[in-house]
Structures are given as structure tokens and as C-alpha cells.
């Protein structure tokens, strides 16, 4: 609910459990007055202190009042160079070369429903949303800034976006434009980020904020394996179930900056948005720029609640899923089994072993096109390699479908190998500055997706492939970071637009693909989880979580990912042992339990499994299908921290609390294992639950307060699943 106090120019955004408030003060400065647990209607600017702090300047309107400084006031969208020395949101450079921005309130609009952002991913929905737009203006440059707020009460979600409009008569360069600024009038907060590298993404890191700026960012052109555009600020004591925490997520897939600054007043400012590194956007008179959306969830009761609110909002208001309301297929992918070395017979062999186990979708990964026999050739040539697949897809796909499976394939549209027809014909279509050697990544170069003719060329080839057979699934991959970011199509003074234009180009093709092939399920991928962000989830309902398929490493990767993103978004497969990335051997049971904390599928040649393993697989597939709704759409509870605790455990609970699935994976075996109980969460304390169809009934209160006795492992990495049903 958005409440306006017109007289005092106070704007309060209430969700079920939180309140967010801002106020345009007597000078027109838009103050941020509060964000936290829901409070009674009240002008919270009374919390603000006006005290003269040395070296904090006063704007001209303040006159003799030295207690009024932009440097100490909590701001809704911070300015630049005019008296606030903390992190700036926005910076304008008009023709005189000044680099300033000073914003004052100029009006507002209130609307039912949710705003949208043309060309950019954004949360969507109907009447359950409300929108507030606050207009600010820099009266010298005549540039206006529209702050968008979307309020989804039931999920405690507040989205924000920013549009900058050049309303003056001269060209203005926009040198930075954050999506979100959040000023806290308190300093005692922890900063949590999700960091890692290729094959070990989204490890949780937590530390108290100390004076100065702490930040994570990407300058790689993608959101990256290394840092995720999702961060948390929280009480020092916050944990899964207690304490105040604030999640901030950017709905964007390119360079980002998430920075938290602890200030001289021991307050904190959080900034999130496109990274100002290599960013400069020219606005001619009348033109506008829209910054990507950010989404906030505040939870007064720990991380678990925050995550569940994000999960629900993402599932219901961000992901556009061709299978919405239906079950997505269990898949088998040939990559880890064959890499580039396959032909039609080998693929059909793999599919033939999977079909009797009720696996439903066969995915042909990299290597099916052009001269793609290694990672050094063929990218860019999107036509079937008939040496490997005689008769092309027209021959292969019906053979797979005859086995009762649907068919999907891998593409990597943004890339090209030098050894390809595309590159030989269009060497100027890549990112790369003239007369300078360029860097290769995985032996490949990046196509300039900011250029329409490049996108059109690539997409028309892909569209032809997708239209040539019955294809139900596409894995959209992207296997290197951007370097040599220079475009032959942009003038020298607009090269600072290229990183963002590249991302817009990717979104443009994904949107076209969704429009042209509405029934195809697209899985995002970027060497695993290098572009695992909310921006991609708007186009690709699931994303391959990591190239690391080792079940034990995956416990940590999926744990970190779960803080923001739902199970239904996390691509997870059972692969062969010894695992290709770690050499570790883990039982088929445990590999299945871990993959079921994601979209679930297999990535191996099942011809090389024992009859017992195949029986296990058949049971896993049947179990997954039976409990699909609970696993993919249930409320998700983390029951342990796999970085610290001896067992990893998590739980999905149906919204009515009548059903739950608990998954437990133990670590390496030790002698003299202590007896452990696992306290479950989210159950009905008054209901009696039958566990795995057993004899005894267990009261919900007992399971939650006293716990369930964890089975004592008799070897490394054992697992158990408990299916609970209330009677
Ligand atoms: C990336 C993906 C893998 C696989 C290969 C194919 O690394 O993450 O799953 O598709 O590319 O080249």
C-alpha cells in the first residue's frame, strides 16, 4: 500500500511486514527517512538530526543554517559534487564539462499495477502491484530523474528503477546512474556478498562494515562467476530465523557495482547499479536513459524469510516460464559424457539408455554445428555438421522422439571462433580496438551484439535451426568475459555505451526468441553460473548453476545461490563418478538428492551404469515427478550451513504446511560420530506427520523443537530424504 501525505510530502510504501518512507523536505531534497519492519503511519523525518559537522558544506537554500548539509542527510537518490561526499548515484556532464548533479523534488505520480521497462527485464504483474514515480530535477542542466517504485505487498518486495531525461537544449553525458541508493541511519551492519570463481560460484562471505567503502563488482561484461549482483545488509546477530536483514538484487546481466559505505556519522549507504567503470551515455536533448531495475526485500526475521519472499516473487513475477503451472521435463545432457566427440549413433545410444528410466528430454550440447570438433573452431556457424549428424536434425530429432523423449540443443550466439565462416566473412563484427591485438577467451572472440546487423545475422541462422525440427529446449551459453570492448559501429565519444548496449543486444535477441518460440524452455548458462542473475531469469526460467557437478561442492554453490534464487531456477544434474571436476566419488543416491535441490536431470552416459544404479535412477525420477510441486514450488528452508556444519540439510514445505521434504547429506566419514538431531522448520506444530510412510506419527512441534535424529553415517557423503505428510 502506498500512502501519500500530500501536505508534508511524505511517501510511505507499506508491504505486509515492512515500511519504506521518503520525504521531500522544505528545500525539495528527497530524504530517505526509514526502511524496516512495518510501523504506524507517521512522518519519520523526526529521526533526522541537523547538526553542523565540520567540512560538510551547506547548499545555498540553507542560508545561515550550518546544520543542513547534503553530506549528512539521508538521501533517497544521492547527488554528485554539490556537497554530499558519499557515494553518488548520478553524474551529469553537460557541454561545459562540469561533472555535477543536484536534484530537487518536482512532483510525483501514483498508479495501480506495475511499471515496465522497455528493452530491460523487470518484475511484472497486475493489480496486486502499485507504482509510485517521484520526479526530481536538476534545474541547471534541465535534466530530470524519475524514480520508479513498484510495491508488491504480499512478497515484501519493493522494486526500483530510474529514468534520466535530458529536458534541456544541450547534450549531457551521463557518467553514472545507479538503480538504488539506500541510506541507513545506523552503522552496525554486516555486509554479505556471494563470491567465487568459475566452477565455485556464490560462496557466502560476511563481514561487519568498517569505515569507508566496501564493494563487489563486475567489469567482465556479465554479472560474473566472481561476484553476484545480490547482496545483503543485516544486523550483526542476524541468522536464518532472527534479525533484521535487507536483500538488494539487481535485475541485470552486465557490469554492476554493489557498494556499501560506512560514513563519518557511522551511518551506511548502499548503492547498486550499472558499474560506472567504462560507462558514459550521451543524452541528446529530449533523450532518456533507463537504468535497470533493483529489487529490495527487508525481513524482520532472518535470511530464511527474505529468501522465501524473493523465491516467490521471482517465480511468480519475474520468470516467464512456458511450463508455468506444469512440470518441466527431467532431462539428460550429453556434455560430460562426450564433450565434442559424438555422432548421431552415440547420441541415440545415450538417449536409448535414458528413455526407459522415464527421462523425458534429450539435450544435445556443444559440438553439433559447423566445424565444431574442439573449442577452437566452428562458433558462429549455426548449421548442423552433417558429418556428425547425417541428415541433420530432420533425421536425428524424430529418432529421439520415437524413444518418447523431446529434444533440445545448445547454442552460444554471442561468440565466434576465428576458424569459422562467420569470422572469415565478417572479421570486423567482433569487439576489438583497431590496431591492437585482442585477447582470446576459451579460444574465442566476442561478437559485437550492440550492432543490430550482427544480432540479426546470428539470430536468423539460429531461428532457422530452431524452426527446422521439433525443439523443446535451448541452452543459451556464453563462455568468456568481455575484453577489448570497442565497437566499430560507435563513434569515439560513445564507446562508453558499449558494455550496456551489448547487454541490451542480448536481451533483444532473447526476447525475440521467446516471441518466436514461446513453447521452448530456455536454460541460461555462462560457463556454468557466470551469468546467474535476475536479469537472465526474465528470459531463461532456469540457469545452469555451475560447471562443477560434484555433488559435495554443489552443496555450497546451491546453498549460496538459494539466498536469492529459487530452486526452480537452479540447473542441477547428476553426473558420472569419479567427478570430472574434483575426482570425487559420491553414491548415485547422494548425487540424486543434491540435483533435486535444483531443476534435476542427468549429464552422463547411462549405458555405463550398473543395473542397481539404473534402478536408483528410475526411483529418483519417479520420486522427483511425484513431488515436483513440493520440490520446485514449496517454501524453502535452509536447515544447516554447509560451510560450517557437519551435515548439509534443507527442506521444502508445501504452502499449507501439510507436506514437507527434508534432504540431508553428510560430510566425509569419521569414527565416533556424535548423535545429532535436526530441527525442522515451517511445519504445523499441531499436526501429526508420518515420515516416509512409517508406523509412527510425529507431532510438528516435536520435529521443530526437539528435532529428527539424523541417521549415523556409515561412510562418506551419505544422504537421506524424509517425506513428511500430515494426517
Ligand atoms: C560451458 C557450459 C557447459 C557446456 C560447455 C560446452 O562450459 O557451462 O555445460 O555446455 O560450455 O562447450
SSE topology sketch:
Elements: E1 2-5, E2 10-14, E3 18-24, E4 30-37, E5 90-93, E6 104-112, E7 129-138, E8 143-152, E9 157-166, E10 172-184, E11 189-197, E12 200-208, E13 212-218, E14 230-235, E15 245-251, E16 256-262, E17 268-274, E18 281-283, E19 288-299, H1 302-317, E20 331-333, H2 335-338, H3 344-354, E21 361-364, H4 392-402, E22 406-411, E23 415-416, H5 421-425, E24 445-446, H6 452-467, E25 473-476, H7 498-516, E26 521-524, H8 534-537, E27 542-544, H9 551-561, E28 570-571, E29 574-575, H10 588-595, E30 601-603, H11 611-626, H12 628-633, E31 635-638, E32 647-653, E33 659-666, E34 677-678, E35 688-691, E36 697-699, H13 700-705, E37 708-709, E38 719-726
Parallel strand pairs: 20-21, 20-30, 21-22, 22-25, 25-26, 26-27, 27-28, 29-30
Antiparallel strand pairs: 1-2, 2-3, 3-4, 5-10, 6-7, 7-8, 8-9, 9-19, 10-17, 10-18, 11-12, 11-14, 13-16, 14-15, 15-19, 16-17, 23-24, 31-32, 32-33, 33-38, 34-37, 35-36, 35-38
Helix pairs in contact: 6-7, 9-10, 10-11
The protein binds alpha-D-galactopyranose.
Task: Describe the 3D structure.
With 727 residues, the chain is of the alpha+beta class. The chain contains 13 helices and 38 strands. The chain has a 9-stranded antiparallel β-sheet. Strand 27 (542-544), helix 9 (551-561) and strand 28 (570-571) form a beta-alpha-beta unit. The longest helix has 19 residues, at 498-516. It is globular, with a radius of gyration of 27 Å. The model has no long low-confidence stretch (mean pLDDT 97). The structure holds alpha-D-galactopyranose (GLA).
